[in-house]
Design brief:
single chain; 230 residues; alpha+beta; Structural Genomics Hypothetical 15.5 Kd Protein In mrcA-pckA Intergenic Region, Chain A; nine-stranded antiparallel beta sheet; three-stranded antiparallel beta sheet; binds zinc ion
């Protein structure tokens, strides 16, 4: 597989950074600093400071897809799972799990003793830890999540905030080299499923097998189109 450069954009200042420099940038970004120090927009005066985790998320086998997010430590695994589904994963409501230090936490419980995702993040993760998220146990998308740090700050609700995200990778049509717009869900297993608009019409597996190319580690898998499932 050709090496795909992996640049991304800082949500605070709009700057473009490589995957390896974005963390240092976020720690120093003046625009982020200003936003974090501004008094909260809602409510009167200063709320109680909460612990907020900084997480780096990436495709376990597709590391060109990555995110830096912040999420309150009181948010649950469920909250984090919903966020990842909405942004990156959801196709048909598959089962998912977090794998944290040898323990599994499932989106749905099937057997007595299965752990749910109703645990607050602060109970199960801490800075320095790495853990995994698996979406769909058939055609799995696996994510690696690193807990970069924790800080005290203002947070609203339990939602995650995207601090930085990879730009859509420059993926080319496997036939003609033009920018790809779709991926064949049959050929993608061989790593040769990328097609451009022109080549899509004559793709050997048929146009029905093509899925739109989406900026997500789930692109080309199952029925993933990037449209949120309800
Ligand atoms: Zn920035
Ligand atoms: Zn699916
Ligand atoms: Zn082409
Ligand atoms: Zn194909």
């Amino acid at each position: 597989m050709t090496r795909i450069s992996s640049k991304g954009t800082c949500s605070y200042c709009g700057g473009s950074y490589s995957k390896s420099t974005i963390l240092r940038h976020l720690q120093a970004c003046p625009a982020r600093k200003t936003e974090n120090e501004a008094p909260s927009k809602k409510g009167s005066g200063k709320g109680v400071a909460k612990t907020i985790f900084h997480l780096q998320v990436e495709g376990l086998y597709l590391p060109m897809y990555w995110l830096h997010i912040e999420i309150p430590a009181k948010a649950t695994l469920d909250d984090l799972d919903s966020f990842l589904r909405d942004l990156w994963l959801e196709c048909c409501g598959h089962l998912s799990s977090f794998e944290i230090q040898g323990q599994s936490f499932f989106s749905e419980k099937f057997e007595p003793g299965d752990r749910s995702m109703r645990f607050a993040l602060e109970k199960v993760i801490a800075p320095g830890m790495k853990f995994e998220h698996i979406y769909d146990f058939g055609t799995s998308t696996e994510l690696l999540i690193k807990v970069i740090s924790a800080r005290e700050g203002q947070a609203q609700g339990k939602g995650a905030v995207i601090m930085a995200r990879n730009d859509p990778p420059d993926i080319r049509c496997n036939t003609c080299g033009k920018p790809a717009t779709a991926i064949c869900c049959i050929c993608s297993d061989e790593g040769t499923g990328y097609v451009c608009d022109d080549c899509a019409k004559k793709h050997e597996c048929g146009e029905d097998m093509l899925l739109p190319l989406v900026n997500s580690p789930r692109t080309g898998m199952c029925g993933y189109t990037g449209e949120c499932y309800d």
